[in-house]
Amino acid sequence: MQLYHSPTTPFGRKVMVLLLETGQASDVTLIPAAGTPTAPGSLPVDRNPLGKIPALVLDDGSAIYDSRVICRFFDDRAGGRLYPKAPLLWRTLTLEATADGILDAAILMVYEARIRPEDKRFPDWVEAQWAKVARALDALEAGWADHLNGPLDMGQLALACALSYLDFRHADRDWRQGRPALAAWESQIAKRPSLKETVPQG
After folding, report:
1. Which of 20, 53, 136, 183 is the most buried (most CB within 10 A)?
2. What is the domain class of 88-192 according to CATH?
3. Reported pTM
């Protein structure tokens, strides 16, 4: 199998973390890919018409995407280790969706600064994206301690990747301020070998 991937994409990192956690990393060949919404570059548009990574090419030549689908595929292949059975599954999937939503907003903030010409940037729109992130973090701080401190699942790993991305691209926002429980949880989960091995560089 081939995984179109970049070491700085948090969505690709999610998949890599799951592969490491389930012992499947050696089953995948990584294909470097990079680009932006305005310049696809080497993004696999022939494999994912949305032009996003990660995208996984299976042994039969078909492709699946996005990161949540790929994570479910590999978890199923490993015997269902990181997605519990319902009803707890719905909590895990909601946490993963929250983490992915944080990433969506954080990445749009990066694109606004990197891609849009300076005279066309919209500061209020950037702040609206951060407001989404802040609301999500506040909700996690207030109502998710029981789940975050429970058995390891993909929702937790996705959130760990999202919080790390905030440090990577938006460190000046200091997401930990006012969220001591979430900060303490992140400091512990970040010690897992799968997360230490996949910390983005550059």
Report:
1. 53
2. mainly alpha
3. 0.96
69-88 pLDDT, tens digit each: 999 999 999 999 999 999 99
Fold of 2-77: Glutaredoxin (3.40.30)
Cβ neighbors of 56 (< 8 A, separation 6 or more) are: 1, 2, 3, 4, 15, 28, 63, 64, 65, 70, 73
**Four-point Cα dihedral 34, 201, 162, 144, nearest 10:** 160
Q: Is the dihedral of CA 147, 153, 156, 162 positive or negative?
A: negative
Written as six digits, the tokens of 60 are: 């039969």
Q: Which residues of the chain have pLDDT under 50?
A: none
- Contact yes or no for 108/165 (Cβ under 8 A): no
Q: SS3 for 107? A: helix
